[in-house]
Write a structure and sequence with these properties.
By secondary structure, this protein is mainly α. It is built from 3 helices and no strands.
Length: 70
């Protein structure tokens, strides 16, 4: 039987995967000789929004209001 994970464990998995993806984006744009420096504001914006959505989705009272915005 598959064991259901706790709420905190699910949130930690989401946040952990977001940090891994963010690190890859930063590494690829900060590489010497890379002309992707103009992506930096977009990367920061997307990371902050993703983190905000992941954290607010855990608060069940706020989730409908946040998803209504998007």
């Amino acid at each position: 039987m598959i064991r259901k994970r706790g709420k905190l464990a699910r949130q930690l998995i989401i946040v952990g995967s977001a940090f891994g993806t963010s690190a890859n984006l930063v590494k690829s744009s900060a590489r010497p000789g890379s002309r992707r420096w103009w992506l930096t504001p977009l990367i920061i914006f997307l990371c902050l929004n993703g983190l905000l959505l992941a954290l607010v989705a855990g608060v069940e009272v706020l989730a409908p209001f946040v998803y209504a915005i998007f």
